[in-house]
Design a protein that fits this description.
Length: 175
């Protein structure tokens, strides 16, 4: 039976997020231009004013650029035969594998509204991973014991991923 499945979670955008992204893009450009103008001030002989303007504008341009780059974040969930992998994608360019859990190590799967989630969060020595972007209504958790570690993974699976996980290991479902 084929257990392969991939799902991407994106932040539910509103128009404000789009405007914020374009605003930061514009501010990066304007502050960069301000830093360039500071260089011209420096060359014209206004050393103190030029240095202050370069440092201030270059710093703000860098901050705007980095904030804009990390504003677009999404998570990928991939289920391949014996592993479920979690990855973080930044600005649709940089992908970083965050966690891989063997499906044989899964102990439970349930919505976070389940009482078991509250108990597990309080457990001593548990590693908690949060791979969510949207409202808590859609959040589920996986509890796994892998390599001597206790893992609590919070994520936003769709119905198909939940179904595939239940098919792979029926004993984990606590819905």
């Amino acid at each position: 039976m084929d257990y392969s499945f991939e799902q991407t979670i994106r932040h539910n955008e509103d128009k404000g997020d789009k405007y914020k992204y374009y605003f930061l893009y514009t501010m990066t450009f304007l502050f960069g231009f301000g830093a360039f103008y500071g260089i011209l001030q420096l060359l014209a002989g206004s050393i103190i004013i030029g240095l202050i303007q370069i440092i201030l504008c270059a710093g703000l341009a860098l901050y705007s650029f980095i904030y804009k780059e990390y504003m677009l974040v999404e998570f990928d969930y991939a289920l391949y035969e014996d592993d479920i992998n979690f990855a973080k994608v930044i600005n649709l360019k940089k992908r970083k594998e965050m966690l891989s859990v063997n499906t044989e190590c899964l102990v439970s799967l349930a919505p976070i509204a389940n009482q078991r989630f509250t108990e597990l969060k309080k457990m001593q020595g548990i590693k908690i991973y949060n791979f969510t972007l949207n409202s808590e209504d859609l959040h589920f958790f996986i509890y796994a014991e892998q390599g001597g570690e206790k893992l609590l993974v919070i994520f936003e699976p769709n119905e198909e991923l939940i179904k595939k996980l239940k098919q792979k290991k029926p004993s984990i479902a606590r819905l």
